[in-house]
Every structure is written in structure tokens, then in C-alpha cells.
Amino acid sequence: MIKVNLTQRIWLAFISLILLVGLSITIVYPLSIKGTLTEETYRMIEQIQSQNIINPSEFNPQQISMSLLMHKINLEL
Q: How many structural domains comprise the chain?
């Protein structure tokens, strides 16, 4: 059996923890995004992004938040 000192064990623990978290994020994150976003959401994002490309000087994050909120309210009614 290979003898590993305490410093090496700590580094191996950190590396394995980082790899485990990275692998978990790589697997879980795309699946959760795919389940969360619908085609309607993709269309709304594309529409707002195209508006920002046409008029970047008029970019207003509050206006975008309000338009998304109003659109969501209209969908629920």
C-alpha cells in the first residue's frame, strides 16, 4: 500500500471534492435548465435580446423585468 502523508491526503481530498462538485454541476445544471425553460421562455428571451441589439442605447433592465413580469401575468390570466 502506498503511504500518503497528511498534506497529500488534504490536497487529494480538495481535488476530489472539486471534481465531484464540478461533475455534479456539469450533469445536473443542464437538466434543470432544460426542465425550467420552456419554448415560450426561449422566445421571450430572444425577443428581448433582439430589441436590445436594435436599440442598445435604450437598454433599461427595469423595463425588461417589468415586460417579463407583465407577460407572465398575461399568461396566467
A: 2
